[in-house]
Amino acid sequence: MELLVAIIIGVMTCCAVFLILRARTFAVMLGLTMLSYAVNLFIFASGGLKIGAGAVLHATEEYADPLPQALVLTAIVIGFAMTAFLVVLSIRARADLGNDHVDGKLPVAKNTRQGASS
Amino acid sequence: MIELLLIVLFPLIGSLVPVITAGWSRSYSALATALLPFAALALVLQLAPAVFSGETLFYKLPWVEALGLSLSFRLDGLSLLFVFLILGIGLLIILYARYYLSEKDSMARFYGFLMLFMTAMLGIVLSNNLLQLWVFWELTSISSFLLISFWWHRADARLGARMALMITGFGGLALLAGILLIGKVLGSFELDEVLSQAAVLQQHSLYPVILILVLLGAFTKSAQFPFHFWLPNAMSAPTPVSAYLHSATMVKAGIFLLARMYPLLAGSDLWFLMVTITGMTTLLVGAYLALFQHDLKGLLAYSTISHLGLITLLFGLGTDLAAVAAIFHIMNHAIFKASLFMAAGIIDHESGSRDMRKLNGLWQFMPVTATLAMVASASMAGVPLLNGFLSKEMFFAETLHQEVLGALSWLIPVLATVAATLSVAYSARFIHDVFFNGQPKGLPRTPHEPPRYMRVPVEVLVALCILVGLAPAYIVGDLLAVASSAVLAGPLPVYSLSIWHGVNLPLMMSVLALTLGIVLYFNRKHLFRFQAELPELNPLQFFDLKINALLGFSKKWHHSIESVALQRYLVWMFVIVAVLLIWPLQQMGQFSQHKVMQQPDTLMFAATFVATIAAIATVLCQRQRLLSLVMISIVGLVVTLIFVRFSAPDLALTQLSVEVVTIVLLMLALFFLPHKISRASNAGRLIRDGAIASICGVVIGSLSYALMLEPQQRISEFFLANSKTGGGGYNVVNVILVDFRGFDTLGEITVLGIAALGIFKLLTRLPLFRSSSDAQGRQWALDKHPMLLAVVSQALLPLALLVSVYIFFRGHNLPGGGFVAGLITAIAIILQYVAQGVDWVRERLTMDYHRLIAAGVLISTTTGAASWAFDRPFLTSWFDYFHLPLFGEIELASAIAFDLGVYLTVVGATLMILANLGKMTTEHRPVNREQS
User: Fold this and answer.
1) Please, which of B116, B337, B480, B687 could form a disulfide with B247 given CB 3.0 to 4.6 Å?
2) Is residue B811 domain-shared with residue B915, that is, in the same domain?
3) What are phi and psi of B523, to 5 degrees?
4) Does B927 touch chain A if contact means CB atoms closer than 8 Å?
5) Nearest-angstrom CA–CA distance, B130 and B180
6) DSSP bridge pairs for B892
7) Is residue B518 pLDDT above 80, yes or no?
8) How high is the pLDDT of residue B929?
9) Which of B67, B84, B191 is nearest to B129 (CA)?
């Protein structure tokens, strides 16, 4: 079980990072949304995985760790607010700057944009 | 002694008075401004008898004791002397500035800054805590920056202000380092604990470092050589500022620091060498350069530098009598120099010039001002029967008693006489050039006496010069005694404040200096010619050159790192994160065998498969944007199901509802973003990004795996045990949110509200890109609001609202709560917007989302604050059980009210974001209210 959850987290992180590294704002939004899934799942999983053991007293024999759940619950809502802010920011950027590139301007010539990291 | 706090607080409140009274007549506004400093002065006078009897008064308000942070004030003799100077001269300056400032200048701004500065200065001299002293120290730098640049439309004012800020700011940082080291060595920042430990500190190996750092702070502030050049350039400030900051108070802050730290730091050879040499150099350089200034204020500025050097030199000599002389000269200098600056301001104000080459023979136009200025400059020159003479005599006497330099000790009195000669010469120039020496040349207007009350402050100060000069023991004897004993922290030496000590060596030195000074002045042509031949070193240009070189250097560095490309920064960030995580991962692997893994089942395999496929598909479809949206929502749903599977119903509910609003949001975003996307990245870049992404994925996945297997110490037992008894709820997750970690939740809904408001602001006046068709060139559907959806959604609305109420109330004991309920309500209303259109909803729902958010945050905060009424800490929750007929046992808890605030904020924020974005294409889109 643990391994499968870890794999899901890994795959989601990988895809999210790849999307965040794209040049268009929409891909970055998708990437951030996916990254917040991964992070929420990560925090949740750090409390351990329990089946059939909610964090409601007297409902079950055993209880899941309530603290990561509480942390993730607010994180989900805040994550939405932040994504929304980013979305509107990029809409505004597109409207004011006329393009949806993350740097606010389109690269001058496409064949010059290579090996940027070194 | 709460009064000590009030003395500092009054001027701080007073900085608002001129702003409030800006609409009044100028005289009334000035009067109102003077009221609070006057009240502070009255408080000081009331406390003064205790200080004169030898007491030191304290007031302490502990804050973070562990870090040595507290609000801690003290009033001893030294503080008292400075408080008198700051408040007394400050009040005179308020009166003076009323007439000095023209109609065009903003009096409110000037007085506001001035009072802020007064607060900062009072804070320095009254602080008993070194860190607190430093905060006020920096505040003087900032407020003086604002005051020097008061006429900000002038380039020289801006440059002078910047230079002063940079030099004193640099010194301030050095001082902070010194203070922190003192705290580290002595274990306290409280002056009353620190000052008595001189022996411990001076034995410590860090003592030289501490001394140099503290002295850097003091010397930059007091314009000591080689940091003196900022002071003449600060003369571009209005003259009341120069009179107050640059003669009487701020430049004296450095001197004050020397006096304050005297018991702790003085006494070593290092102190003697550094302070004496700096003081002597400053004394001579200042006096020499003062002679060549053509600007009236320039002359006074260099003279101030010279006198500050003199005081520093006296502290450096290290004998008890020298310290007494230093204190005495602090007050004398403040009195005569402030009056001289004000006189110079009057001359400038009434004749339109400060250039001594143009100003001649003003005696005939303004005899009264001339007499006052002449008395004050005679005091500056050290003419007998005036206050300047007395402290200068003490200074001479002290220079004669030095033996530390061995066979070279005779140099000190000789150099002191040379400096005194120069000071006589420049004082003579101030008197003779300005008031006699022929007729004025080319002044912009005919000079005349100033308004009556503008002269009053000068008269008061000059009267003090004469009174102190004639009867020093009666006027300032007590003040000098308590101030000196505070500095010396021990018995006072024997000294006499009489004006006649018989014919002795100091008197001969004075006579020599006076005679030579007059001779020098009348032969100044030769000296001026000599000076003119020297290459001119303009400190301003030099400073600019250095600053530009520094800027150029950092720009070069900056450009080599900064490329204004977000993607490149992100690559660096992800690579660094991944690399930094690899090492701890190796450590974690070691105990991975301690926990038993659960057997995976088919369901989980299926989930992993679907999530992986959907996530990868999102990446692959990213240029077919709608499709990628569908894919990412599948990933979100799998996450929701994982929450369901592993016993987190609260999370599943929240994730599911957020999923809905997120997808609606992204759909809306799609409409406003370009529909046709060309391929942006080449193959090399894709491979690079793919590699980085894979490394990040592997590292994070492994980290998560290692975390799950690691045996953990949990704090959750506490929450499980106390949820019912302490928070009154069975649903531990909800109780954590509204009770245990309620403060976090309050913070989070506040952030939510702020984000929503930010979005609203971003959407106002947004120029729209509206395409008439989608990426494939198809027209948008004409049927905006399909009948079927409209009917179903309308029917769903009451049901959804009912569910959200139910979810809200059961939240305390079963999965649910404010967050989920708020999201469900928001979704139900959003569905109406989608199905029926903005106009339809507007007619029926007249809710203002701004108010909703405000109400939510307010309710939660008020619930938290209500526990104060019962003498409990913020956000303490309360609950009890009641029996109602028909309903049976019900629970009432304050947490419900808190959760209601959460609910309202979530509804308001979500609707504000989505509804406003949706309204963009209609006539109801957000506009600035003040403009619409």
Assistant:
1) B337
2) yes
3) -105, 25
4) no
5) 9
6) B880
7) yes
8) 52
9) B191
Q: Which domain holds residue B2?
A: 1-175+241-256
**CA quadruple B587, B589, B593, B596: dihedral, nearest 10:** 120
Is there a single domain that holds both residue B247 and residue B326? Answer: no
**B168 within some domain:** yes
Same-domain pairing of B250 and B287 = no
pLDDT tens digits, one per residue of B359-392: 888 888 889 999 999 999 999 998 888 888 888 8
Q: Which residues fall within 8 angstroms of residue B161, CB to CB, at 6 or more apart?
A: B145, B146, B148, B149, B234, B236, B237
Residue holding tokens 């970055």? Answer: A28
Q: Show the tokens assigned to B586.
A: 């190796």
Same domain, B290 and B354: yes
CA distance linking residue B486 with residue B272, whole number of Å: 20
Among residues B230, B256, B282, the one where a domain terminates is B256
Residue B135: is its pLDDT beyond 70?
A: yes
Number of CB pairs, chain A paired with chain B, less than 8 A apart: 332
pLDDT at site B643: 93
Could you give the CA distance from residue A79 to residue B651 in angstroms, rounded to a whole number? 13
ipTM of the prediction: 0.91
Domain count, chain B: 3
Residue B357 per-residue DSSP state:
T
CA–CA dist B629, B609 (Å, integer): 19
- How far separated are the first and last CA of chain A, in Å rounded? 40
Domains of chain A as residue ranges with CATH: 2-105 (1.10.287)
Same domain flag for B249 and B349: no
pLDDT band at residue A118 under the 50/70/90 scheme: very low
Query: CB distance B651–A74 less than 8 Å?
Result: no
| Count of Cβ atoms closer than 10 Å to residue B446 Cβ | 10
Of B285-299, B503-517, B698-712, B763-777, minimum mean pLDDT range: B763-777
Q: Are B256 and B313 in contact (CB under 8 A)?
A: no
**Are B516 and B376 members of one domain?**
yes
Distance of CA A55 to the CA centre of its chain: 25
d(CA B389, CA B472): 11
Rounded Cα distance between B423 and B417, Å, is: 10
Residues 752-811, chain B: which have Cβ within 8 Å of A?
752, 755-756, 758-759, 762-763, 766-769
- The reply to whether B639 falls in a domain is no
Q: Which amino acid is at B749?
A: I
Letter for the amino acid at A23?
A
Does residue B245 sit in the same domain as residue B304? no
Q: Which residues contact A23 (CB under 8 A, 6 or more apart)?
A: A101, A102, A103, B567, B680, B681
Sign of the CA dihedral with B235 first, then B241, B246, and B250 last: negative
Summarize pLDDT for A71-96 with one digit per residue, the tens. 999 899 889 999 999 999 988 888 88
Could you tell me if B40 and B143 lie in one domain? yes
Res. B931 pLDDT band, cuts 50 70 90: very low
Cβ(B725)–Cβ(B854) under 8 Å?
A: no
Domain boundary among B256, B289, B317: B256
Tens digit of pLDDT for each residue in B316-349?
988 888 999 999 999 999 999 999 999 999 999 8
CA distance B541 to B156: 12
Question: In chain A, what residues touch B913 (CB-CB under 8 Å)?
Answer: 81, 84, 88
Q: Which of B642, B746, B763 would you mutate first to test chain A, the one with the most A CBs within 10 A?
A: B642
Beta bridge partners of A5: none
User: How many Å separate Cα B452 from the centre of its chain?
Assistant: 40
